[in-house]
Amino acid sequence: MSSQPYEPVYYRDYLALNSLLNAQHRKSEHYGTPAHDEMLFIITHQTYELWFKQILFEIDSIRQTFNHVPLPENEIATVLHRLRRVNRIAEVLIQQITVMETMTPMDFLEFRDMLHPASGFQSLQFRILEAKLGLPDEKRLTTYLHLDEADATLLRAAKEETTLFALVEQWLERMPFFENETYTFSEEYRQAVKNMLTTERATVARHPVYGEEDMKQILKQYDAVESAFEALFNPEQYNTLLSSGGRRLSQRATLSAIFIFLYRDYPLLHLPFCLLDEILRFDESLSMWRYRHALMAKRMIGERIGTGGSSGHHYLVQAALKHKVFSDYEVLASFVVPRRVVPPLPKDIEKNLLFAFQQQNDSSL
Ligand code: HEM
């Protein structure tokens, strides 16, 4: 056997602790008025930045995998595993805010003025994450972020890369199983939803609890759901939705996603379903982090403007609502039908979605 080829490793050097643990420089100390809580403020931000780095590392690898066309099935499992990791980290990010909140507004005021105009706006990693996920500038409340030239160049480069949103969309657009000579998924599904909405309308109309005015409002909402649903099948109407910004996901990708949601119990669609579910969860977690961070900002600085010049709490709450990347998938929940009315699939399509083992043992296939 050959001798061990690796050099001995020392814990401190491996983790670069000399750099890491000497990277906390309190401005308040620099100005001769040390503020105790500034250490917590710095370390909390640094911890977040380290987690952002890990998330970006995972998202980059996921994007790289999605670039494989066609995407091998075993790689879907790897993507899913990494997305789940990202989601566990996101939980930590949200939870960690309570540590920051052990600092009181008065403690913060001891050093806040020394930090202008530095701000979370300048978190390059956060901006790169938003860009790589696929948050377009048009959707952003502001693009004025006070980045220096070096960071602005890096952000511009990140924006040139294909986003996770686009890669998932392309993957969905390539999905087969939609039709054969006698069957078209969209037609069967359209009819199933129409029937479902008719039944729901009738149930509401019979309900003794609603007065005449309530009933009118409810039925109006049904009309809105129905016309949004009809737009799924009409290319012209769908394009209007796309150009007005009402939707970003292509029609084909949207129908694929619905197909996955409806037939997710088939083995071949189970991983794709879990994958979409984790992506949605991450989008939600980021919004939750944004909202939680907005509440913390309110608790710390009230209605003051941010050090980055935004309106502070108000901006952060609006960003939590608007800076979502995968909201197209959220909307699809309105168009999902109960299992009992999911249209059955033709045998030849069904066969492709089962485990090979199951196919061999089912004589009807
Ligand atoms: C005392 C604690 C904190 C307060 C009062 C606070 C306040 C704010 C405010 C007011 C903004 C809006 C931009 C501006 O005008 O400056 C902002 C943005 C931001 N902050 Fe914080 N923050 C705090 C802690 C943190 C921590 C621990 C992180 C972790 C990295 C963080 C990350 C961010 C990010 C990424 C943004 C940009 C958000 C966006 O544009 O959507 N903040 N923060």
Question: Can you describe this structure?
Answer:
The chain is mainly alpha-helical. It is built from 19 helices and no strands. It has helices at residues 11-14, 17-20, 27-30, 38-66, 73-95, 97-100, 105-109, 124-133, 149-160, 164-173, 185-206, 212-231, 235-244, 251-262, 267-301, 313-322, 327-331, 347-353, 356-361. α4 packs antiparallel against α5 (73-95) and α11 (185-206) packs antiparallel against α12 (212-231). The radius of gyration is 26 Å and the shape is globular. The structure holds protoporphyrin IX containing FE (HEM). Residues 44-45, 48, 100, 108, 119-121, 123, 126, 290, 293, 296-297, 300-301, 306-310, 312, 315-316, 319, 323 line the site of protoporphyrin IX containing FE (HEM).
What would you say about this model in short?
This protein is mainly α.
Topology record:
Layout: H1 11-14, H2 17-20, H3 27-30, H4 38-66, H5 73-95, H6 97-100, H7 105-109, H8 124-133, H9 149-160, H10 164-173, H11 185-206, H12 212-231, H13 235-244, H14 251-262, H15 267-301, H16 313-322, H17 327-331, H18 347-353, H19 356-361
